[in-house]
Input
Amino acid sequence: MTKTGEAQGNGKRPLRVLMIAPTSFFSDYGGHIRILEETRALQELGHKVVIVTYYKGSDMPGLDIRRTARLPWHTEYEVGSSRHKIAFDLFLAAQSVREGLRVQPDIIHGHMHEGALIGGVLSRLLGVPLLFDFQGSMSSEMVDHGFLARDSHFYSAARRLELLINNRLPQAILTSSYLAAQLLQDEFGADPALIHPLPDCADTDRFHPDLLDEAQKQRLKQQLGIPADRLIVAYLGLLTDYQGTSYLIDAAARLKAAGEAIHFLVMGYPNVEHYRAEAARAGVEDTMTFTGKIEYRDAARYLALGDIAVAPKLSATEGSGKILNYMAMAQPVVAFDTPVSREFMAGWGVYAPAGDGERFTAAIRDLAHDPARRQELGRQLRLRAIETYSWRQAAERIQAIYYLLTKA
Output
């Protein structure tokens, strides 16, 4: 914990926060970045944050992470929705109770619906408030991930549970976008007084366009086997169909057929071998590089190679934090036209109709031939990231909610 006098300097004491993260924290994607950066920024304000999470994941320097016991009968599971998560969450609930009794927190900060459900029970046991960090509709994401069919009985049950979690358990709700805040009100009837939009943010010092000079970029390209004269389209995130990975392969095939000297740098996991095979079947194995997992500490270095960044995610409810890192790197971004993409980039993004692979490819091609537009879009997006999406400002807003709930 650092700068412990800061909270006290505002006439407030530092708080003990029990953060429940129903995931393999830390892994290098999506909501994990939000948990990491929120925690770091809250610690900078002087608060003690204890994170309870699954036994898998990477330990991060400076973070107090308490892990569950290993499952005796199953050690591997899929990213995203999976029936195995039920067992993992039962173990997480037991560990959260143990840590709650040890830490005696002033407030519980539950991420995602499972964290809010566990945190809601624990908050009543300990007599402390629950803050729910909402990152998208649980039932809609299960459909997006192919885990549930919208017309199934299980979907109806998941929807009812989601209503309970949203409306009965938390004393305040953070949302990762303004769209999500509206979703909670319109679809779930959540009390607007409880909702605090807190969009994902970017570390604009870590993600900086001048991180590598030209010689360093060329050396890294050589290490990756990317021809020096190719314009690079960069993607960093999960490799799954619901993230739109297949659209990248489709775009690479269309651009190669058109004779464009464009190379796709696809960074992330899982399913790396599956998509490499798909790229080979499409005849674009020579214009696509799949790096596999990139550690968060190295993400900015690899992103620095990109001339254009892409966000082909289709979900209408999930956040898309990768866009903010692209923005911080001053890279123009081609994305499907979703409300979250619009919220982050406003008029400075380049949009294709959701699911339209031909228009998505055309947007990449047009930017590739317009370096002046690429530079201006990138400049404006970085400026927007600096002015609007700061983790320090976000932590100060979280702190204010903590103090409101705890009356500390």
Remarks:
- Residues 1-5 have pLDDT under 50 and may be disordered.
- The longest helix spans residues 84-103.
- The radius of gyration is 21 Å.
